[in-house]
Amino acid sequence: MNNSSTSDPSFFGKDNVSFFVGKVEDVNDPKRSGRVRVRCVGWHPKDDNSEDGIKNEDLPWAKVALPTTLPQQNRVGGKHGLLPGSWVIGIFLDGNEAQHPMV
């Protein structure tokens, strides 16, 4: 086992982990895989109409973690009940790159 102090960004948990609180903006996943778009407090401007804002369609899609009692395989299993306006907590799986959220 290598006890090096350097992190391996391809190994989740040993890189920078970034948590967030956010508001669900979109639940209409074109892939129909149960993802949602979330506007994350401190990461995305509040107003998508402002000059420095981010439009909802430019927000990254977030995977939704579900209880282990709901299987998620081959599009079989339960659905999340999130609606636009729901508040969630989550984690960026890619750390400070902030492009792969999970709620």
Strand order of the largest sheet: 3-2-1-4-5
Integer average pLDDT: 82
Q: Gap between N and C termini, in Å?
A: 32 Å
Order of helices and strands: EEEEE
Q: What count of helical segments does DSSP give?
A: 0
| Helix content, binned percent | under 10%
Query: Uncertain segments of ≥5 residues (pLDDT<50)?
Result: 1-6
Give the overall form. globular
Strand tally is 5
Structural class: mainly beta
The value of Rg in angstroms is: 15 Å
The biggest beta sheet reads:
5 strands, antiparallel
Q: How much beta, percentage-wise?
A: 15-25%
Description:
By secondary structure, the protein is mostly beta strands. It contains no helices and five strands. It has strands at residues 18-26, 36-40, 61-62, 87-92, 101-102. A five-stranded antiparallel beta sheet has the order 3-2-1-4-5, with no helix packed on it.
Summarize the structure.
The chain is mainly beta and 103 residues long.
Summarize the SSE layout with pairings.
Blueprint: E1 18-26, E2 36-40, E3 61-62, E4 87-92, E5 101-102
Antiparallel strand pairs: 1-2, 1-4, 2-3, 4-5
Q: What would the keywords be for this entry?
A:
5 strands; mainly beta; five-stranded antiparallel sheet; globular; 103 residues
